[in-house]
Each structure stands twice: as structure tokens, then as C-alpha cells.
């Protein structure tokens, strides 16, 4: 795997927001940056008018070159490569992710990512990319503007969702390393629901049992976080363990986040995408950039 961050872009303001986020991240990591434009193989997805092969080449090559000019102006020391590929967007982007430290895609949220409908291309990439994928929210004020370097933003807390029933090492490693690079704090969020049979709030016994489960969950979360606190001693880490719906609690906790990190199982299935309800909700509703990190189930 090369030391490169890859951005999938289409020339829109949304994808340009992803470009500038990735350029800043590549500079912090000391990696190169690859700007990748995917020309969809379907003939009717770009324009009702047929384009000649030469026109397609000029259009496809112009988009990453234009983005590269903006990146080089803002980050003159950054090594920037451009490329475009004609092919299936999901396959091309997943292959690019496999060759990169990180894949970054622009996200309009509540509907589309990098110009594609969430639930098709973007959802498939999030669910099947073998490496972490970051979805960056586009600018609000002018969706049709060409985009440009965003104003410097404070690092913001890195909010990470922790699932105590499956592998969390890859997710926490990504979150803590990002926070360490950016001088940010980490908030580890775990939410749980009581077993439905004991009547958690309806009887004294149910209330006591809920309190016992809460204490056990808090202890388990603290145990999971302890080695990461030792590995990244400069990163402040707080734990949020609460009774509630995981997706709802994580979205609420991420209101002022600089980055939200969620995991998804790295298992492969021929039956389609398996992203998970929590990651799906976060991608739809969080305003902050969202990192989806594949992990192995335990």
C-alpha cells in the first residue's frame, strides 16, 4: 500500500470540499494526494447529449487538473497526482481505497455523496471499501459554486462510536491517531438498551437491574479504552456510556464534532452492502466529516 490519500471527485463544490479536507490531512500525515475522477461507464448518466471519446477525455482530465491547481496553490509542498478512470464507480473507488491509506469522498448528506445517491454508489463504497473512507460534508451557502479552500476550523472533538460486542481496535486506533495528529480530544460513545423482559423502569427490581447493567457497561467501556489512553497519553479521552438508541445518541454527541468515527464489519457478502444501522444513520445526519472504518468481528 502506498503512502497516499485518494479523493474521489466530480468537480462539484461538494467534492472540492473533500479535496481540500484531504489535502490538509495529507499534509499532516506527510503523504501524497491522488485526485481521482471516475467517468461512469453508463452512457446516459452525465448528459443527454452523446460525447465523443476525445470530448470525454478532455472533460475527465480537466476536473482533476483544475482541482490540483487549487491544492498546489494552498499546499505547495504537497505531492499531488491526478488521474481519471472510465469504469464502474464502486469498483474503481474500492480499488483506489485498497491502494491508499484513506479514501475521501464529498458528501451532500441526507441524500447524496460525490454526486451519487446515498444507498447506491456511496453506500456500496462505505460498506465494501477495504480501507477507511471519510465522507466530507460540502458547503451550505452555494451548492453550485466551484469551491475553494475552506477557512481554518478548530480541530473539534473526535467522536467515536464503540461497539462492545464486536472488534473496536481498528475504530479506536483510527480515532485516537487522528486526534493525536490534530491536537484534539476524543469522546468515546457507547449506548445500550435494557433487556425488554425485566421492566427496567416499571419496578424497583427492574430499576436495580438496569443500574447494574449500566455499571457493567461503564466498566467494560473503560477497560476497552485503557490501552488506547496509554498509547496516546497526550489525547484527552472521555467516555460516554448511556441508556438509549446507539444511532440517536451518537448523532446527538457529534453535533460539534470535528470528525465522527464509526465501524462496520469487514466481512464480505455477495448479497450486497452491510453497513449497519448506526453507520447509515451517522452518514445521513451528521454535519461533521464521517470516517467509516472496517474492522474484523471478534
UniProtKB/TrEMBL annotation:
Tell me the first and last residues of the signal peptide.
none
Domain UspA stretches: 1-137, 157-294
Output the InterPro entries linked to this UniProt entry: Rossmann-like_a/b/a_fold (IPR014729), Universal_stress_UspA (IPR006015), UspA (IPR006016)
Under SUPFAM superfamilies, the record lists: Adenine nucleotide alpha hydrolases-like
Annotated coiled-coil positions are: none
Q: Which family does it belong to?
A: Belongs to the universal stress protein A family.
Q: By what name is this protein known?
A: Universal stress protein
Organism (species): Streptomyces bambusae
Amino acid at each position: 500500500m502506498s503512502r497516499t490519500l485518494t479523493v474521489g471527485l466530480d468537480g462539484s463544490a461538494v467534492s472540492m470540499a473533500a479535496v481540500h479536507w484531504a489535502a490538509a490531512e495529507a499534509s499532516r500525515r506527510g503523504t501524497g494526494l491522488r485526485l481521482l475522477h471516475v467517468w461512469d461507464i453508463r452512457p446516459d448518466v452525465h448528459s443527454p447529449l452523446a460525447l465523443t471519446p476525445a470530448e470525454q477525455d478532455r472533460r475527465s482530465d480537466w476536473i482533476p487538473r483544475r482541482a490540483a491547481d487549487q491544492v498546489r496553490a494552498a499546499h505547495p509542498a504537497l505531492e499531488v497526482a491526478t488521474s481519471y478512470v472510465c469504469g464502474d464507480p464502486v469498483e474503481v473507488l474500492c480499488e483506489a481505497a485498497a491502494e491508499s491509506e484513506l479514501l475521501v469522498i464529498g458528501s451532500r448528506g441526507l441524500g447524496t455523496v460525490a454526486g451519487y445517491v446515498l444507498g447506491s454508489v456511496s453506500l456500496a463504497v462505505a460498506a465494501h471499501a477495504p480501507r477507511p473512507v471519510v465522507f466530507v460534508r460540502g458547503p451550505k451557502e452555494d451548492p453550485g459554486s466551484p469551491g475553494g479552500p475552506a477557512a481554518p476550523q478548530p480541530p473539534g472533538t473526535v467522536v467515536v462510536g464503540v461497539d462492545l460486542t464486536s472488534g473496536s481496535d481498528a475504530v479506536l486506533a483510527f480515532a485516537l491517531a487522528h486526534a493525536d495528529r490534530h491536537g484534539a480530544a476524543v469522546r468515546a460513545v457507547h449506548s445500550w438498551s435494557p433487556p425488554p423482559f425485566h421492566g427496567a423502569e416499571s419496578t424497583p427490581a427492574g430499576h436495580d437491574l438496569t443500574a447494574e447493567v449500566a455499571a457493567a457497561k461503564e466498566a467494560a467501556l473503560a477497560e476497552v479504552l485503557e490501552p488506547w489512553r496509554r498509547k496516546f497519553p497526550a489525547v484527552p479521552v472521555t467516555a460516554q456510556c448511556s441508556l438509549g438508541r446507539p444511532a440517536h445518541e451518537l448523532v446527538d454527541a457529534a453535533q460539534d464534532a470535528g470528525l465522527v468515527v464509526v465501524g462496520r464489519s469487514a466481512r464480505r457478502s455477495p448479497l450486497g452492502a452491510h453497513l449497519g444501522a448506526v453507520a447509515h444513520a451517522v452518514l445521513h445526519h451528521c454535519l461533521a466529516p464521517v470516517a467509516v472504518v472496517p474492522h474484523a468481528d471478534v
